[in-house]
Request: fold
Amino acid sequence: MADTTIVQPKEAAIKFGKKERKLITDPLDDNNPITVQVLGICSALAVTTGMKNALVMAVAVIFVLVFSNVITSLLRKQIPKQVRMIVQLVIIAALVTIVELTLKAIAFDSYKQLSVFIGLIITNCIIMGRLEAFAMANKPWESALDGLGNGFGYGIILIIVAFFREFFGKGELMGAKIIGGTSDYLLDTSSIAWLGWYENNNLMVLFPSAMFVIAVLIWAHRAWNPKLVDVS
Amino acid sequence: MGDLINIFIKSAFIENLALAYFLGMCSYLAVSKTVKTAFGLGLAVIFVLGITMPINWVINTWLLGENGIFQTDLTFLRFILFIAVIASMVQLVEMVVEKYSPALYNSLGIFLPLITVNCAILGGSLFMVSKEYNFAESVAFGLGGGFGWFLAIVAIAAIREKIKYSDVPPAMRGLGMAFLLTGLMGMAFMGLMGIDPAAF
Reply:
């Protein structure tokens, strides 16, 4: 390889300055994968009926995103331009297979509930998008931070959406009964007047509500940060 | 035959890939600004789904299954093989269309390569596996799923074209409205769930 003869500038490979911090904080707000870049919507909608699933999914995506970013970044000079999509997809698919088998072994309930959506991390556009836009042009350490930042930006939206859907749809959080009906876990809510009145809103568990919750989130986000408003 | 029509109708309307399972949402939201482009992408999705589904069925049953040629359970290779098939089929379709129908190629433009990462395609194949369809059923499922996705994206593009002239709060313009509309369309499609597929 001709590239190996190039002398790299003497500079610490791993550092954490202002630029690196921006890589992590930017996707949380100005460049959020879901509400701004519109990437990775499919899984965000489908797995957010409960916070537990959303957490598992967020961890899985962060894992795949960080490692695929690093691997692609290490290989970026070797990958021929014409077949880069297939190479990237194979890297992602291998990592997703690891995640799938791990989940099957340690969290079988979540694995069953997430079903095809674990496999669909492969086509989660956040991952392809970050590989194309960032990892193919940057060093491994920056790519890892970028993956981490975008993973957090994705995960945070997932958890917010899941919070509203699970709380109002089932009256639960993380599977523990909080309001309405009879309680299985924490406290007997039916005996406490101000907790027992709530009737579960079944619409929140169904799929259209995920759309509404994200629409409201986008509204709130853009009202708070007006420079994101769509002017077209 | 009735069974196949049943699966087609079911996958196109009742279990619509876009509006019931939220698959292919990224391109669904990004490419639905005008009806013309939405139409092109929709056609390409029908095409690719209809082709990759039977191929992936053959791979899953004859190559990876326990009764396949290797006589071992190789299903852990499913993701890698499925996505490789999809990526190469998209590439192949692109080359064939470019050679034999330049007009169609120009109208589809960049949407063909985009389809590789459209999760409706991979999702369709994974659903086919989890629903244990046979070969003919997987063809019907692929075409029906593609048709349903096509309908959904053309419908939302038409609505978004009209809503451009409405007075929407600034923060809701564009993406926010698209989400809200998709949610409402999803509710409308939920109405179809009551239909008894046995009636067909």
User: Anything to note?
Assistant: The beta strands of chain A are 172-173, 176-177. Chain A has a mean pLDDT of 79. The first strand of chain A starts at residue 172 and ends at 173. The two ends of chain A are 47 Å apart (CA to CA).
